[in-house]
Write the structure tokens for this entry.
Amino acid sequence: MHDLFVIGGGINGCGIARDAAGRGYSVALAEMDDFASGTSSGATKLIHGGLRYLEHYEFRLVRESLMEREVLWAMAPHIIWPMRFVLPYQKGGIRPAWLIRLGLFLYDHLGGRKLLPPTSVLDMRKDPAGKPLKANFTKAFEYSDGWVDDARMVVLNARDAADHGARIMPRTKVVGARTDNGSWTIETVDVVSGRRETHQARMLVNAAGPWVDQVIRNAFGQNDAHHVRLVQGSHIVVRKKFEGPRAYFFQNPDNRIIFAIPYEDDFTLIGTTDRDYDADPRDVRISDEETTYLCNAASEYFREPVTPADIVWTYSAVRPLFDDGASKAQEATRDYVLKIEEGQGAPLLNVFGGKLTTYRRLAEHALEKIGEAIGAKGPNWTSQSRLPGGDFPAKGYEGEVAKLQQRYAFLPERQARHLVRRYGTRSATILGGAARMEDLGRQFGSDLYEAEVRYLMEQEWAMSAQDVLWRRTKEGLRLTAEQARDLEEYMAAQPASLAV
């Protein structure tokens, strides 16, 4: 019998499973699809305090988020790094300068910032950040936040949970859950093989994200469950619109904001939208209306307009925000709510809301409730931990690239940088004893070689080309349709599941 059974392989479910397994709990986790195949890979990919949340007086959430930025950066410096954001200001704009200054002052001082540089004011007529923008933007504020490879953060939490003894089961759907003599009996089905299995657990954690209410209704028979507000966020990726490592924060006349962010070396990511969503989260797609909105909003700032013809990729996701009754989707709280239910006959923890930046703290708070319900095990530990591959200093990325190139002199610099960004110190595990490029096996396109694909199948549960190209990496931006089909055929010919 397990201590915990977690439903959901997004950032919250994997974060809770990792924290619990590291404390000595016996943990199982089931995800009906691939890890981060829902909300957790559809974000704007920021580790941020949430500057705009200050307008909605969410000071607790902002403070916790600000404090987490440097904690998470230290945990995973390969997939998380600091980024400067340029907020252009125009007199008579949506928000007055004094309000922006006040917000940024709070942003600088609420969260115990130590490594990230403070806010500054830019003269856009002289600063390179002004070059891609229209001439009327002569002043800007610049502040610090962080960037994260969101899908990799999820799978690394799953990997570390497994390394601490958790049983991790992707593509495994929970089809029933009932209590029996003070514990849970959970029925699952492997959606690939059709194999059914029964599990026993002392406590159940429902971290199914957009499907949390659906799990409550279907698995537990509570037909009146309605706790989440589904909000669609969509993004577009276009060819690079500007040089340099800085991102932009744009304010729109409808009080919404969008970001324009350097993405995967050769592209610019623009998003997000906020609109209520009432269909199946699996079917979420960017709408023509959202595409037009993002293009028009970015074109209000950039000298060179953004058009639908510039788009190379889009992605959408549904955020499961806790339904606090806010009138507008963009005003709904981004905070999380954890609810224990004892009425089932055994403890059940339902997880509502949350965001990438606060996932570790959410997990700690969840473990407090779990400890109260079934007995505590072990102290808080994740704030000083490292995610797999992240065992180097927060500012040590360049040094890791240099070390990898010194050890594997045949590696092109671009590929070395990509490997360290994805795998950190575990890059050497992928490369092994290779002495030349041919030793990495078949090249599927761009920088993707057989050695990396096999690692992803063996260590990170990748089973399809989609898993590799859009979640474990973003090589889907560079491979042709034919190359993607070749990868799919190669992976299909491998054993059904190599991951442990």
About this structure: Residues 397-492 form a domain with the Helicase, Ruva Protein; domain 3 fold (CATH 1.10.8.870). The chain has three domains: 2-39+151-226+333-384, 81-146+229-323, 397-492. The mean pLDDT is 92. The first helix runs from residue 11 to 23.
